[in-house]
Design a protein that fits this description.
Length: 100
Amino acid sequence: MDWHLLGLSFITVFLSELGDKSQLAAIALSGRSNSPRAVFFGAAGALLLTSLLGALAGGAVAELLPTRLLKAIAAIGFAILAARLLLFNNEPSADSEETP
């Protein structure tokens, strides 16, 4: 097992999940329940399952497609998202409308 990769993955996911909506839901549920331990095990199990499914899906896709093609697809996808956010998101939302 590559311990460096394991540590890097753990730190990356740990930092990205801090303050996430799943953390806020776990805080709200444990504050209202009589069994915060059950909330912990439920939230931990759900995170483990989604991480396992993501890793399995990523491994399967990596087996089917060459690495160069996957990188190109990811780059194009991020470029499209960036362009949409920068160029086509000028409409005011319902929350930001000013009252006269």
